[in-house]
Amino acid sequence: MAGTKARKSPAGTASHGAARRSRSTRHSLLNDFPLRTVFVAAGVIGLAALGIALFGPRRFRDEIIKPIGAVTYAPLAAAMAPQAEHAWAETRAWRDRVGRILESINTADVRDQVAARLANWIERFR
């Protein structure tokens, strides 16, 4: 009797392995990045709502939103201002040329010609 061992049935082993896999699958779903992101976003939104409820919307805006905006916007504006001024200076000649073209087109004679062509075009379809 001591030499006889009870054997596990293959069906019992397979079902136990399947249960173990499903538990690990559920565990890995909780560790996925998108699910964590959803939890973090929901937490941030909840904390913002709690802050608004405690402080009031005006105080929340003045003490939290504006300082965060100043910290993030000021460096971006400082970095972009020289590039924007440079781009504006580089396009000066092009802007002047387009302005002269538009001024030369915007005359009474040109407007009369456009009106006559439009009237002619409309008459074709009647």
Describe the overall structure:
The protein has 126 residues and is mainly alpha-helical. It has one domain. It is built from five helices and no strands. Helix 2 (33-55) crosses helix 3 (57-90). The N and C termini lie far apart (110 Å).
Summarize the structure.
This protein is mainly alpha-helical.
Secondary structure elements and their pairing?
Layout: H1 10-30, H2 33-55, H3 57-90, H4 92-105, H5 108-124
Helix pairs in contact: 2-3
Give average pLDDT, whole number.
79
Q: Please describe the biggest sheet, giving its number of strands, its sense, and whether it closes into a barrel.
A: none
Tally of distinct domains: 1
Structural class: mainly alpha
Total strand count, please?
A: 0
Number of helices, where a helix is a run of at least 4 consecutive DSSP H or I residues: 5
Name the helicity range: over 70%
How widely separated are the two ends? 110 Å
- State Rg: 36 Å
Helix and strand element order: HHHHH
Low-confidence stretches are none
Q: What share of the residues does DSSP label as strand, in percent? A: under 5%
Shape, principal axes of CA atoms: elongated
